[in-house]
Amino acid sequence: MPTVFAHLRRPRWRSLILLALVLAPLLWPVQQLAQRYYLAKLVEQNHQTLDLYVANLLGSLRRYEVLPPILGDLPALRQALATPKDPQVIAAANRLLEQVSQQTGAQVVYLMDADGNSLAASNWQQDDSFVNRNFAFRPYFREAIAGQLGRFFGLGTTSGKRGYYFAAAMRDAGRNLGVLVIKVDFDHIETLWGNTPEQLLVTDAQGVVILTSNSQWRFTASRPLDKVERMAIMANLPYPTQAPPPLRLKNEEWLRQDRQLLETGWTVSILSPRSLLDRPVRTAMVAAGGLLLLLLLALGLLMQRQRHYLERIALDSRARQELEQRVLERTEDLERLNSRLKDEVLEREQAQQELLCAQDELVQASKLSALGTMSASISHELNQPLAAIRSYADNAGVLLDHQRIEDARGNLKLISQLTQRMASITAHLRAFARRDRHAPESVALQPALDDALALLAKRRRSLEVELIRDLPEATLWVQAGETRLRQVLGNLLANALDALSEVAPPRRLWLSSTLSDYGVELQLRDNGPGFSAQALQRAREPFFTTKTSAQGLGLGLAICDTLMRSLGGELVLSNHPSGGAVLTLRLRAVEQGIKPQSAEDFVV
Ligand code: ADP
């Protein structure tokens, strides 16, 4: 893998975890913010709850605080103060107070004389009735006598029940006649709070809890009590105990809000467990964490996509590079091929040049060869008539010696004919070399054959060759040239005699002819050794011979074949099944015609 792509292969998730570790501290301010937010919300909520509660408390108190002065003016009660010994008056007062208690909801309403003796009470019928008791020791009595509205929180000495006392003096011309007291029950206020995690508590001026939603905290001291306070407690007995135990609250566990009630000297507090904040903060943290995680995931995906994109770009560019490289290599290959082609073309041109030169040389060589062939042919063809001339001349000499003038003349005439024939042969050879074409002519076959036989008669006789003729009486007219036909026949007969000379007698030579579709077929058969296999194939080639150089030149059959083809005929070589060679001349048959004087016969 090239180093370019190495960075793309690094595990992405490791960097994401690192990123998460870096981002994790971000959750701390989130937590702080959430805590502050929910704290503010809780404080606000508590504030409202506290307001409500305080309003409720104050409402309850104010409802009752106005009652003692009003009730103090009731004539029945004043009558009771005036005639405390009159049981009827006291009974009427009792009933009145009971009625008031029922109507106002006050726990107890009672009437005291100026010395603190209770004359009548709303609970006059109950066992723990307040009637005929003395409450002069109670601070509210003292305050009322002093001309103030007496206020006091404490347990009833008789009932043992908590309550808030309002007391007002009943006066007449500046003289205290008595005191009317209303005791209000606050138990129901505690029950109003219900079962909420927030706790409410009301502490009095000494800091002792007098009302609370948590019963364990009731009558505990929220702060250390000084000596005067402890003395006052011992004197007034507001609580079930004279030494209230300390209220043990862990400040870090609670969120506390206070409100002072000036008219009572109380402090109303609301306490919320700080654990209330935990859940929403935790939820906020989880949400923030989730959001962060989502952001990280999105970031991861984005990075992955970017990585894929980069990878694709890298792949594309690599593919492009490879393509360019391939194109480059291909171009180089093509250039190499091109230059090789150029070289080859040059070589071809050179070879062609050389070929042309070789052809020129070949033409020259073939000309020389043709020259050689022709000269060899000429000497071969002329040797036979020369030999005949020599023999006729010798005979003529002998005949003259014997005074046989006529016979000698005959021989000389024959010599003259032969020279004429030799001239014809040379002319023919020249024509053969030039491939001259002669107009077809009709030639009588049998006379031409007789002429050829006559030329070789002496040799045939010396070899004792039996001639078997199977030719029709009627003249066979063939398309040929007179001289050329005789030349062919002479050659073939000479070859037959040569072949027969190689075998012992009886030596036979068959001459026969047949008429075929083609024309006339003349067959010359001997009972010599026949053609060897090689001779059958090559006998027509110039200079092919199986004879010694003195006997043969290998031109006879070559000339015959050429002449036959120039005559429009054919020469076929074969062996007879019973031995010996068979040479067939195929000639075109023509209509009987007057034998014209052949032009070639006069050529010199
Ligand atoms: P040459 O007679 O000078 O050899 P030719 O062309 O006439 O040349 O003959 C070629 C060869 O064909 C001869 O050498 C001989 O082997 C063969 N041949 C020709 N005629 C005959 C024949 N009648 N019988 C057997 N062989 C023959």
Helix tally? 16
Largest sheet: 5 strands, antiparallel
Are there runs of 5+ residues with pLDDT below 50, and where? Answer: 1-8, 594-604
- Number of extended strands: 16
Q: Could you give a short description of this structure?
A:
This protein has 16 helices and 16 strands. It is α+β, with helices and mostly antiparallel strands.
Give the key terms.
disordered C terminus; alpha+beta; 604 residues; 5-stranded mixed β-sheet; binds adenosine-5'-diphosphate; 53% helix; rod-shaped
Task: Give your account of this protein's structure.
- The structure is a single chain.
- With 604 residues, this protein is an alpha+beta fold.
- It is 53% helix and 17% strand.
- The protein has 16 helices and 16 strands.
- The longest helix has 127 residues, at 275-401.
- The protein is rod-shaped and about 240 Å long.
- It starts with 5 loop residues before the first helix and ends in a 17-residue tail after the last strand.
- Residues 1-8 and 594-604 have low confidence and may be disordered.
- Residues 491, 495-496, 498-499, 526, 528-531, 535, 539, 544-547, 552-558, 581 line the site of adenosine-5'-diphosphate.
Give the SSE map.
Layout (H helix, E strand, L loop, with lengths): L5 H4 L2 H12 L3 H39 L1 H5 L3 H8 L4 H18 L3 E6 L4 E4 L17 H7 L4 E6 L6 E11 L2 E10 L2 H6 L6 E5 L5 E4 L14 H10 L17 E8 L4 E8 L1 H127 L3 H30 L6 E4 H11 L1 H7 L1 E6 L6 E4 L1 H20 L5 E9 L4 E7 L6 H6 L17 H11 L3 E6 L5 E7 L17
Parallel strand pairs: 11-13
Antiparallel strand pairs: 1-2, 1-5, 3-4, 4-5, 6-7, 6-9, 8-9, 10-12, 13-14, 14-16, 15-16
The protein binds adenosine-5'-diphosphate.
The site of adenosine-5'-diphosphate has 24 residues, from helix 14 and helix 16.
